[in-house]
Amino acid sequence: MKTLFNKLYSTLTCSNPTNLNIVSYYFSLVNSSPNCKHLRHLHARLLRTSLYDDVILSSKLVLAYSQHNKLTSDSLSVFFHMPQKNIYSWNIIIGEFSRSNFPLKAIDLFLRMWQSSDVRPDDFTLPLVLRSCVSCGLVELAVSFHGLCVKMGLESSLFVASALVFLYVSSGKVYDARVLFDGMPKKDAVLWTAMLDGYAKHEEPMLGLELFREMVDAGVAPDWVVMLSLLLVCGQLGWLKQGKSVHGWCVRRCLGMELNLGNAIVDMYLKCATLAYAHRVFNMMNQRDVISWSSLILGYGLSGNVSIAFRLFDNMVAKGVKPNQVTFLGILSACAHGGLAERALSCFEMMGDYGVTPELKHYASMVDCLARAGLLEQAEDFIKRMPMEPDAAILGAILAGCRVHNNVQVGERIARKLISLEPENSGYYVLLSNIYAAAGKFDDAEKVREFMKDKNVSKVPGCSSIESESWLSSSTKQ
Asked: Matching PANTHER family, A to Z (predicted)?
């Protein structure tokens, strides 16, 4: 602390320093300021001299206050009182609000710059605004900013192009993102990664793998971010062999088992139904968060390993990790596969203790648990008490339970609701017909089949996929 003050006031006795040296000196002092108290002393010193008029120093002051968590209180005030502002100043304040979860304020500042100043945006400004629009869900405004990029000739900038690809991918317009991507004369690793991540997150794994091959052929070296997308793609396709190769690449490159990468590897092994590998990677992770625990619990829950799922849940709570919605979905799934209806009800009620609000998927899992246990009337009463309307998945779980437990009365009521919701879904007609047949009501079963023919509803053929020589082969069965 004393050293910093000595540095500050030693400028009073500096022998003939040039203005450039003074600016550079104060810049380093602001940059190394350890807390707000020191920063305010520097701020006061700059105000008492003409140095505050220097746009670089005052802009650095704006950034320094933000880095000390004084964005809204001090940074903004300093910015508005700056004698001069250039694009560097505007980019700092817009960027800080964009990165600090104040995207609307970032957009507001950009519009203020555009309307009330002579400063024009550059290829660093527009990506900040585009990402702020994505954070707010203002897709139409973002598309208008795309038009501004074109008018200003900035669309070919790699920074702007990456932000535009991110915009269209985030809004579900993957095709538009690819058109933009293909139109770029030059592509860097960030642009390739943004497009690959888009394919992975929108469940286009084959297109993602094709793009990755193009990326390698173009001589772009993949990094750990690309590996995250590849792991997601391998998990979506169930490609265990390729997933292991990606895992091996990470180990050979000594990337370690960082949190994001470890979670992605665990998720890939779970989706490939190799729980032992997933658990082994989980145990090797130096750090685990709620995502790590919840993924493994959900994996064991969906596979019916009830005891392991509950043991993991108990360990998670004991280590002070707060369960989230995915955690409880895994626990409810474990109860459903284990036929533990009473325990499922207690876990469902437990969600409120952890501040977790049940979503439609939790109600669906709870109904599935009751239906599997043969408590069909209780499941029917449960959906009547739901705060939202049940969807076809929830009603379908009860109908499947009626098929297993030969409950014709509940099956008829639920089937009517399902057919009114999705009249073209042949599965509901087939289930109802099978319920009638199992109960010996063959005439009613035949009527359902005839009704399907009259409505021109045909059974959708099943399809299975197998991995063969690093590719997928599929077979269809009627």
From this structure: OS07G0636900 PROTEIN, PENTATRICOPEPTIDE REPEAT-CONTAINING PROTEIN
pLDDT tens for 111-139 read: 999 988 888 988 899 999 999 999 888 98
Q: Please state the domain extents for the chain.
A: 196-287, 288-339, 359-462
Q: Over the range 26-56, which residues count as b (16 or more CB within 10 Å of their CB) and which as e? A: bbebbeebeebebbebbbebbeeeebbebeb
Position 255 scores a pLDDT of 65
The model's pLDDT over 27-64, given as tens digits with 9 standing for 90+, comes to: 777 777 777 787 788 888 888 887 778 888 888 888 88
* Predicted local distance difference test score (pLDDT) of residue 91: 92
Is pTM beyond 0.90 here? no
Encoded tokens for 158: 């790699």
Rounded Cα distance between 365 and 332, Å, is: 6
Which CATH architecture group holds 359-462?
Alpha Horseshoe (1.25)
Q: Is the CB of residue 267 less than 8 Å from the CB of residue 231? A: yes
